[in-house]
Every structure is written in structure tokens, then in C-alpha cells.
Amino acid sequence: MKGRPSRDNGCRCLSLRFFSGVAAALLGAGNAPAANPPVPELSGDWARQAFEFEQPASGPGPIVNLMHKPNGIGSIFNMPVGNYRDPILRPEAAERVRQLGEISLKGIAFPNPSNHCMIESPPFVLHLQRRIQMMQRPNEVVITYEQTPQARIVRLNSQHPTHLIPSWSGDSVGHYEGDTLVVDTVGVKVGPLSMIDIFGTPHSEAMHLIERYRLIDYEAAKGATEKAIKEQGYAAASAINEGVMFDPKYMGKGLQVQFTVDDPNVFTAPWSAAVTYRRAADDWVEYVCPENTQEYYAQKNTEIPTADTPDF
User: Fold this and answer.
1) Left, alpha or beta for 124 (phi > 0: left; psi -120 to 50: alpha)?
2) What burial letters (b/e) apply to 25-53, b meaning 16+ CB within 10 Å?
3) Which residues contact 182 (CB under 8 A, 6 or more apart)?
4) pLDDT digits 0-9 by tens, 284-293
5) Cβ pair 136, 42 in contact under 8 A
6) Residue partners of 200: CB distance under 8 A and separation at least 6
7) Among 219-223, 230-234, 282-286, which range has the highest average pLDDT?
8) pLDDT at 103
């Protein structure tokens, strides 16, 4: 008699375990975690045919060139005279832009990271570089630039170090928000040639840069690049500046980078801008550009910057 209750209890326990398992499976099916959303395919070789930044649709934008070509189409790139009267500039920053503009008006190229073949810090690298490659990996995105042998590494789903040592490229971390790669950069080093654009607009080590990389439809990309060429002028390919042509057969999406700069030490408010790329044609050109004072495009030397104290 003692064995029967044990057998019945065993059957009841088996039944409970069976139905509990079915219930758990059904509940699990209904509450299963959603699959990771697809990552946008941003990788590839991208080009733009204009220098400078594209203005935002609204709100404060970047400093613009006061010097325009006689026909009014495009600015005079080799005579960068930034609008030092822009109210977004704090007085000290405005004075620096004004002084550098006066040098340009004399036909002299003031030193910048490009004509000294130095690392181009963001967002200066967006202002001047016309061809980039995006390489997406599971834990990072690598962005390389054609005209200067440098690369930016964006760590995905990471945090900035607590004790960050400033560097020329800064510390960049990123994550995907739907169809957009959001890159957060801080810790960009300040030195004698530190600047945001070819007008010499300065920045401090407090600068905070947010970039948003996303694909846009072909017509939108075409319209944005054509508008940039009209406003800024065409950066024609030459023997020393090749590889900026669009692939005429590619009718797919373009790559647009919308970004915001926040530096309360230099600007009165955050400001935004954009650059738009389309698929590049031709081969990637390897440039050799060690740090020096030779202006490769003008075959002359620029002034050597000096400082009262070391910048290292």
C-alpha cells in the first residue's frame, strides 16, 4: 500500500512537469528576444567633389569663406578668409580667424594640418578630405582617408576612458541607431596647428563632436553634392589630387555625414553641418605625405609654427 501513493505521485509529477514544460515553451515563444536589427552597409569607397562643409537646413552652421569667385559660383579655396564676424564665434576665436584671413589676403598660405602633412583631426578631416573608405567590423569601424595616410578607429558599444589622454584623432566610440552609425568623439588634442576648418577656426580640448553616418537615396545624394559644388566650387582632379570622381555607373545610395560641434570655449552655441559622398571611381591612390613644411600643391614652404612651451 505504501508503493501505490508513490506510483500515483510519480505520475502526477510527470504530468505536471510535462505541462509545465509545454507552458514554458509557449510563453518563451511569445516573449523571445527580438533579433538584432540589421546593420546598415556603410562600407566601401566614397568620394565628394567639393571642399568645405554643407550648411544645415536650419540653426547655426559652420564658418564660411568670404572670398568668392568673380562669377559668384564657389568660394576661392586657395584664399580662405573665414567669416570672423559670425556671432557663433567667441571674441578670441573670431580674432584668430580674422588674423589668418589677413594672411590669406596677402597671397600667403598660413600653416594648417594639410599643408604640413600632419594628422588631420576631426572635424577638419571632414572639411578637407574628399575620399574615404569605411570598413565595418563586429566591434569597430575603421575610416581611412586617401590624401593623408591616417585612419580613425571607432570602437563600437564602448565608453570613453575615465582618464583620457588627448590625441590628434581623439577618442571615438560608436553605436548603431537603426540605419545610422552614431560616432561620439572627445579628447582631440590642441596644438599650434589645431583647427576645425581651412579658415583656422580653433577648438579646445573641451570640443565634443557627434557624427551621424547614414545612407541616403541616390537623388538626395546627387542633389546634395551638386549643391555643394555650386556653393563651394568644384575640386577638380589633377596630377597631385586624383581619385575624387564619382562612379558614373553607380545609381545606388550615397553616404551622408551630419555632425554637431559643441565647444563652449570657442563657440557661443553648438553648430551643425554635413558632408555628402557618392561611390568613388578609379583606384585608391596612395599618397606619401610625411610631416614637413613643403606645400606640395604650390612648391614652396610655409611658415614654421613656434610656441613658448612644448606641446607634448
Assistant:
1) alpha
2) eeeeeeeeeeeeeeebebebbbbbbbbbb
3) 174, 175, 176, 210, 211, 212
4) 877 777 666 5
5) yes
6) 80, 82, 96, 97, 100, 101, 110, 112
7) 219-223
8) 94
